[in-house]
Design goal:
Blueprint: E1 3-7, E2 10-13, E3 18-25, E4 33-39, E5 46-51, E6 57-59, E7 67-72, E8 77-82, E9 91-98, E10 112-113, E11 117-122
Parallel strand pairs: 2-11
Antiparallel strand pairs: 1-3, 3-8, 4-5, 4-9, 5-6, 7-8, 9-10, 9-11
Length: 123
């Protein structure tokens, strides 16, 4: 049974940083595509970043240069380092996984989802 559990969300001021974590069971990070997504109230879920089994990464244009996705295969943990946060980054953040060979932060590709962690950025 696959379980993804996010942590690390919170409230910060604009310009601040947060690091999100996603611990997994039933999923082997070394062989899966992993991704971070976010959803603000009244908006569709959008892709933030993804990391493939070989470690290659993809980012949404809105977060390039500010966010970094990484993983620790030994710990089966996914991370999202978020720097220079903006109020528009406020959302519920989710980690997700799928096993297909391609790996892009497209919500429709992902099969397994965590429950989310809230990030709130104040101006």
């Amino acid at each position: 049974q696959v379980q993804l559990v996010e942590s690390g969300g919170g409230a910060v001021q604009a310009g601040g940083s947060l690091r999100l974590s996603c611990a997994a069971s039933g999923v082997t990070y070394s062989t899966y595509c992993m991704g971070w997504f976010r959803q603000a109230p009244g908006k569709e879920r959008e892709g933030v970043a993804s990391i493939a089994s070989d470690g290659s990464t993809s980012y949404a244009d809105s977060v390039k240069g500010r966010f970094t996705i990484s993983k620790d295969n030994a710990k089966n943990t996914l991370y999202l380092q978020m720097n220079s946060l903006k109020p528009e980054d406020t959302a519920m953040y989710y980690c997700a996984a799928h096993w297909a060979s391609w790996c892009y932060p497209r919500p429709r590709d992902f099969v397994y989802w965590g429950q989310g962690t809230q990030v709130t950025v104040s101006s």
